[in-house]
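Because discrete structure vocabularies remain unfamiliar, we first show an illustrative case, written as a sequence plus integers encoding its fold.
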Amino acid sequence: MKDIAPQSATSSSSVDKELQQLNIVSKHIEVLLHASESPLTANTLKKHLSLSTKTLNQALELLQQRLDTGVLSLHETASGYRLQIADSYSALIQSVFPQRQERLSQALLETLSVIAYKQPVTRSDIEHVRGVTLSSNILRQLFDKGWIEENGYKDTLGRPALLHTTAQFLDAFGLSHLDELPPMPDIDAIKSMS
């Protein structure tokens, strides 16, 4: 019976040390995320902090638990992890710091939606779906924002460029993967209801 108590104390001490180490790692991750101007990938964090995937995941979980009691949240985007103010504070921020919100035109949003949901697409594909000629200005705006890119060519007459969304698009809309896009509405069902 006397031998059990020291082993238990040793085991408890080992767990405490491991938790302390994880807490330090989670604080280092938080510091790096605060200092970085852009999201940091898991590989970047593992490399700079010499972490295993398991340790990184445990430290990120611990960081999220700590942040849950404050105003920041840990958010994973396509470009990596970033800290951001919790969504519940957006009304307060808008009331104190009103910014002129950028208005995106209906045509721009329709074009972006076609690219996001149907990619890879050509300019002709977009025009076919939208039923109107695509303005070069709309594509230029999307390229300027870094939301779309040309990646490859369609093997047809004229070899038109194939358009894809970028990680910047996902970041701008708070997504980490295209799978997180809302489901496409069933157009046939909507038409039958009218």
About this structure: The mean pLDDT is 86.
